[in-house]
Amino acid sequence: MVSIEQARLALAPHGTLQAQPAALHWHGDFPLPAALEAFYEQIGPLGDWINERVGHDGLTIPTYGNDFSIPPLSRLWSLQAGYRWHGITGERLAAWPDHWLVVADQGADPFIFDLRTGAIQFARHGAGAWEDNAPLFADILEMAACLGTFGQVWDEAGDDICTEDDTVNPVHRARLIDRLAPLLGDAAAASDLTDTFEW
């Protein structure tokens, strides 16, 4: 089980972390689940300042392909546009289950918090209908720590991250698996996760 401190340490290199109380920052039409309330209160991915009108942009975490993005709490509800409701008309989309809440994304492919269990799924756009998949992460802390670790290894590798054929250097893939294994419980789960994100 990943601790708050492990998640905080993994995310800290990727932007500002600051407590974000739900009473001030949650704009959803149902109460914020306790696990997410604790995550934003105790870790608080805030990111960098965009401008006065927009505020903070959340954390952007580099990885192979599109970056991972975790929004600040003030933008979490608006992140549901295009999933829970139509982004232009505001019409509720029947294909999106009520018990799903997008908590992060990679190029608009959502990380989905299951309101019933607290587990996190990952889905890809263009794969057909949205369906329940096996959880990718046990909870929000495991997701945060793992995504932050991807970004840390990416940053540490610098220009050596990719080989000449533009794939991730096996040396850095192995380092990532070594760093993910304690978070996920074993090297096999860590290897599977690196495969999911094409490392």
| Spatial order of strands in the largest sheet | 3-4-5-6-7
Helicity, as a percent range: 25-40%
Low-confidence stretches: none
Shape label: globular
Q: How many E-type strands?
A: 7
Distance from N terminus to C terminus (CA atoms, Å) equals 24 Å
Sheet/helix structural class: alpha+beta
How can the largest sheet be summarized?
5 strands, antiparallel
Q: What is the radius of gyration? A: 17 Å
Question: Beta-strand level of the residues, as a percent range?
Answer: 5-15%
**Nearest-integer average pLDDT:** 93
- Number of helical stretches of at least 4 residues: 7
**SSE ordering:** HHHEEEEHEEEHHH
**Tally of structural domains:** 2
Molecular structure report:
The chain is an alpha+beta fold and 199 residues long. The chain folds into 2 domains: 4-140; 143-196, no CATH class. It contains 7 helices and 7 strands; from the N terminus they run αααββββαβββααα. The strands form 2 sheets. The chain has a 5-stranded antiparallel sheet with strand order 3-4-5-6-7, with helices on one face. It has a two-stranded antiparallel sheet with strand order 1-2. β1 (49-51) and β2 (55-56) form a beta hairpin. α1 (4-11) packs parallel to α5 (140-157) and α5 (140-157) runs antiparallel to α6.
